[in-house]
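input
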Amino acid sequence: MTKDLTLGKAETVLWQFCLPLFGSVIFQQLYNLADSLVAGKFIGEKALAAVGNSYEITLIFIAVAFGCNMGCSVITSQLFGAKDYARMKTAITTSMITSAAVCLAFMGVGILGCGWLLDMIHTPEEILADSALYLDIYVWGLPFMFFYNIATGIYSAMGDSKTPFIFLAFSSTANILVDILFVTAFDMGIAGVAWATFLCQGVSCVLAMGVVFGRLRKMESSKRVPWFSWTLFRRFVSIALPSALQQSFISVGNIIIQSVINSFGASVIAGYSAAVKLNNLVITSFTTLGNGISNYSAQNLGAGKMSRIKEGFRAGVKMVWLLSVPMCLLYFFGGRYLLYLFLDSPEGLAVDTGIIFLRILAPFYFVVSAKLVSDGILRGTGRMRAFMAGTFTDLILRVALAVILAKTSLGVTGIWCAWPIGWTVAMVISVWNYRHGPWQREP
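output
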């Protein structure tokens, strides 16, 4: 199923396109949360800390896969909007070939360097073995993650947000069940959590890619379609590299922050691991909606309908702010009860750490969501320097302030205060760049 995002009222088109994307985010986060839920509930606090500690490193791999997703998706969207289906197919296969090479390189880094990364972030000895075991298994599943991301990027580029939702609903539900099965029935411990992710991600990838190739075969072209194009490769890199760098630098920044948090002990690590998973559920939701706005903007840019980009911004901000209201209230007032999903004890340092983290960040969801809508338009229209400016400012501020404030009387609470400051400054920069885009000259 494909959908032309250049036709119809912008607000209606975005709601119809982005609602399944939001549903996909929920299941994607359930997929990610499953490891922490099962580790915390069925293995113990140290296992939860190990998964959370490893998570910051896995985010680097996810960041690169996300960059490949966006490079493929934006170019495919632009060519789909321009009805240039022959070059669109070449763009897709070029993206796949390039992503495969990148994936192999990062598998090598992961296999050879995960132990060094764990040492670099000062992983406590008590969780080092479990963290290393989880990462070793996770790395072998990178091809599944990379190509699943490419597949979802292609679906979104052609206006189909429902198919990824179906795949994610199936795989995330299966992941939870297999997690519990491997840990409780087979007593596999942290290895069971990692192998469950490996298997479910693999099945999802194979199914998603099979449907992609089936759809591409049905789209007839009047001329022979080459498998690779250096011109499209350069366009792919121009989108994918900044997107991957953006996410990678954020991950590197998170690793630095994680190393600071690790100095406060396993209980603080566990509380942060649980709370940051909940926070990432919201941020990833906003990011995914921003990605949908990227596809919307790219299709309209390809079709030459610049005025619809302004309509998309207004509709996008309205959409993410409607989402921000319940999430802000839920996390601020009900965060304690959500943390119980991860932690066995209703009291103690781990729970207190998570509550403070959520209460500091939740009111600023309105700020970061507006930034991510602006980012989506800048990326979808290829304005990558402007896109990267806000993100890197946010990252630099958050990392620097986390390191500095952790050494003050605020202690670990000072680390959490770095997030709102970085978000606010970055939002101003991103919105300013959007306000000075070429679409503003259109009536």
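quick obs: The chain has a mean pLDDT of 84.
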